[in-house]
Amino acid sequence: MSTQQQEPDTDAETEPEEPESQEVPADQEMSGLASPQQQRLQRKHDGMAEREREAAEDDLEGDSVHIKVFRYDPEVEGKQEPRFDDFHVPFERGMTVLDAVIYARDEFDSSLTFRHSCRQAICGSDAFFVNGRQRLGCKTQISELDQPVRIEPLPHQEVVKDLVVDMDHFYDQMHAVEPYFQDEDTPDSADLEEQRQSPENREKIKMSSRCIWCGACMSSCNIAAGDNEYLGPAAINKAYKFAMDDRESEEIKEHRLRIVEQEHGVWRCQTQFSCTEVCPKDIPLTEHIQELKREAVKKNLKFW
Amino acid sequence: MSQSYNRGLIEDFGRWKEFSAGMWAWIFHKFTGWMLIGYLFTHIAVLSSAIAAADGQTIMLEGEAVNAYTGTIQGLESLFIIRVLEVGLLAVAVFHILNGLRLLMVDLGIGLEAQDKSFYASLILTGVITVASVPTFMQGVGL
Ligand code: HEM
Ligand code: SF4
Ligand code: FES
Questions:
Q1: Beta strands in chain A, from DSSP E residues, in sequence order
Q2: ipTM of the modeled complex
Q3: What is the per-residue pLDDT for A216?
Q4: Is the separation of the CB atoms in A176 and A231 below 8 Å?
Q5: Which of A29-33, A285-289, B133-137 has the highest mean pLDDT?
Q6: Cβ-Cβ contacts under 8 Å, A293 against chain B
Q7: CATH (domain of A274)
Q8: Chain A window 76-135: which residues touch B at a Cβ cutoff of 8 Å?
Q9: Which residue has a Cα nearest atom 41 of ligand 1?
Q10: CATH topology of domain B20-137
Q11: N or C: which end of chain B has fewer CB within 10 A?
């Protein structure tokens, strides 16, 4: 049903044999072009070429970038009233929003505060509200944005200081879905070697496993904004990852479905697609939430 | 943590310029759904003039005494504003139905990648059907 499912016969049978040559097989299915992974890579590749062409066209090289950054600090007299500060940062090819604020902090105002770490869309610390949309600072090219670039902390979360928001509630929701592998009983000692997952099943949960806990989805969701107890897209996606994993037993899956079908769980989702739209890891969040809704209904409606 | 700044309700309502397709679809669906409920009550109110008609009551319409039900309907239909509202009602109903079908597909997990396109399609189709209905609704009404 889900688009993640791979053709069941390809991998399993062809893999053990070493291919004789590196030629791309003519058969589309054999070449793996049909697999979601290949399609994603193809899209990524196309997108990259496109971006490079665009960058070459309107090269901002030598110009400066005008950014407006939200400032607030309850502990400093002059910053208790929220305001925007303007910075003009020299543009460099490939500059991201994160690069720009780092430059502003290092060169202009060392009190400018924001979280960042990996700079490669892995740690999930630098989701900001950039030009009216939740984006990952390190994954957003300045050249793709209209100027002045308005950079604010994530909406619907309390601002601690400048671009830093309080993530506690988001983490609480993530933990509420028990985001760890579990089983009712300790497995028999004879089964303790490896818990294998089929390639198809891996493909099914692959996208859901990419979450970096950045909180962009939760911030974009207007249901989460109105209902503080709503688990939110990221937590539900996390529940999906485990519920759909075949290695967990049926009882645990039911337990997981009971968590997500509670009052502030999947049924709060009104399919506005805001989360799917902003997720920097391209996780089809709405699709996963909808699938869990159907799973929950199936669990409760057993006529046979 | 010492203190923090809550940006309040402005957050929720002040961002409408930045909404994307799915969000607009949701807002329009809510709006049209409740408009239809609203119409249901006026509809019942108008139809209930049939009770009076069944009791033999009449009302005056253009100097003639007519059956209360017929008179109410004809009186309303002769008003330009009512015809405009009828076109509006059709638009609201058509959008609600088309987007309702879109939402059913979304619930079944079909074509989620195209949810924005199906929303635009619903809007355009609603527009076309509404415009096409204008001559019929406006037939024989004096300004
Ligand atoms: C063929 C006709 C119709 C279809 C396919 C349809 C479909 C739907 C669907 C799928 C929803 C759920 C939206 C969601 O998932 O959030 C909905 C909501 C609703 N519908 Fe309809 N509907 C139809 C006719 C009507 C009529 C005739 C009325 C009123 C008399 C109505 C009033 C509403 C209302 C009030 C809501 C709830 C809006 C809210 O979320 O607050 N609908 N409709
Ligand atoms: S689901 Fe996407 S947007 Fe949400 S926290 Fe994970 S990576 Fe961020
Ligand atoms: S800095 Fe790690 S995700 Fe952006």
A1: 64-71, 83-90, 127-130, 133-136, 149-152, 159-161, 164-165
A2: 0.80
A3: 96
A4: yes
A5: A285-289
A6: 107
A7: 1.10.1060.10
A8: 82, 132-133
A9: B30
A10: 3 helical TM bundles of succinate and fumarate reductases (1.20.1300)
A11: C
